Inverse folding.
């Protein structure tokens, strides 16, 4: 079995500030790691994923996440956030074919 | 683009009613999932299906059932709706293999009065 802990339920930041959303996981087997984003009144969509290879993965809109196996973490970062990044972010792990375990979510609010 | 559609965005039902939530995906995905999303609780898996006519219980199956008669359609059924089933319901699909992301529908916000 696997579990996911998102360490912050709410993260308020000012526009153009850096942000880190923290995610820790536990699993007895190798996992694949994902970050999903849910904009207001929309479904979830994939932001980025780690499958293998380089431990640093990037999204097209400037987010990045680093897989740290020793600390069992997959924190999401962005050096400078925009108002449009306001959303809920979910960390997820997948060990069995297709079935994911999601964290409780982190609400990122970017203030002007 | 993969599209996952859900039959309703908003639904209001009364306690005791039988409720059907429909989900359709257009990319020939093998796997389909039903989650409920509640504030502070993230996404919790209700049921999932790896193939037509196959279903497996997720973490919170009590009070729900599912049907998958065709590959593209996965239905969630609330046999007798209760107020504690008021929630946002999300459907998702993915192709086979453990490394593929899930594609989500827009969600159905169900209110049970």
């Amino acid at each position: 079995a696997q579990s996911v802990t998102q360490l912050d339920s709410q993260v308020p930041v000012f526009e153009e500030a850096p942000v880190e959303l923290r995610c820790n996981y536990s699993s007895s087997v190798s996992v694949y790691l994902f970050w999903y984003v849910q904009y207001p009144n929309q479904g979830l969509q994939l932001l980025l994923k780690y499958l293998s290879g380089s431990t640093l993965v990037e999204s097209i809109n400037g987010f990045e996440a680093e897989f740290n196996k020793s600390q069992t973490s997959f924190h999401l970062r962005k050096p400078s956030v925009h108002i449009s990044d306001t959303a809920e972010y979910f960390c997820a792990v997948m060990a069995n074919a297709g079935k994911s375990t999601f964290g409780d979510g982190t609400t990122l609010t970017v203030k002007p | 683009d993969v599209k996952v559609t859900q039959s309703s965005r908003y639904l209001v039902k009364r306690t005791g009613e039988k409720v059907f939530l429909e989900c359709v995906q257009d990319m020939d995905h093998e796997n389909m999932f039903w989650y409920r999303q509640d504030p502070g609780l993230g996404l919790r898996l209700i049921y999932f299906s790896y193939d037509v006519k196959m279903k497996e219980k997720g973490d919170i199956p009590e009070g729900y059932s599912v049907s998958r008669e065709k590959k593209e359609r996965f239905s969630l059924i609330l046999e007798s709706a209760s107020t504690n089933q008021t929630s946002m319901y999300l459907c998702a699909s993915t192709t086979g293999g453990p490394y593929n992301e899930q594609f989500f529908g827009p969600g159905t916000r169900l209110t049970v009065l």
